[in-house]
Amino acid sequence: NRAAFNNAAGVGAMQFLSDLFRLGYAPKSAFPGDVFLQQKGATVITGPFAVPFYESMKPKEFEYDFVPMPMPDSLRGSEVWTYGDPKNIGIFATSKHPKEAWEFVKFILSEENDALFLEMTSQIPYRRDLESSPAFASAVQKLPMLARFVRQARFTCGADNVRPLVEVYDAIAQEYQYCAVLGRESATSAMEIAEEKVNEILSDY
Asked: Which of 56, 61, 96, 150 is deepest in the core (most CB within 10 A)?
């Protein structure tokens, strides 16, 4: 396995993030508490889990909405893809009750229970039929802003399944820090260094 992100798209993404900080659109310092609800920040990167929190904690007459992540001008009009952070369930080969375990997995991942999961947690199940299935309509009716995330579900993807994923993320994050946040490296240099670090990490596996 080798890193496959040091290309025109990867460098462009790093440059885009760097521009956000350079132009002052992204903050370089952290503030205590929720700066969005405190009305100290105009935007915040968050997810569907924030909907019930904002609804219960927002100041009186506070209005807000959710929009897709910012995109480079060159991709205007394209669908916005985002990281889905899917979770997986496995059954150990040494299980004494594999059939029962499989039935349990099917039960907890049924449409009915996924709909209940959505309603209770505001987390979006990783399913293809979210928009078309009436089972999920109830949760969306109770929290209408979830509809935006339900529509986005078709355009999410997980990370590559590699063992040293945390180390890989750390290596990329370091170069993101130096390039985008601190402005000490160019996007091209940052991606080259990140590629070298990641390939070294992958070589041990």
From this structure: 150
Can you give the three-state secondary structure of 67-128, one letter per residue?
Answer: CCCCCCHHHCCCCCCEECCCCCCCCCCCCCCHHHHHHHHHHHCCHHHHHHHHHHHCCCCCCC
- Which token pair is 85? 């952070």
Mean of all residue pLDDT scores within the chain: 90
| Domain coordinates in residue numbering, the chain | 1-25+160-205, 98-157
Strands 156-157 and 82-83, how do they pair?
Answer: parallel
Task: Kindly report, residue by residue over 81-107, the tens digit of the pLDDT.
Answer: 888 877 889 999 999 999 999 999 999
| Whether 48 contacts 149, CB under 8 Å | yes
- d(Cα 190, Cα 202) in Å, to the nearest integer? 18
Residue 30 CB partners (closer than 8 Å, separation 6+)? none
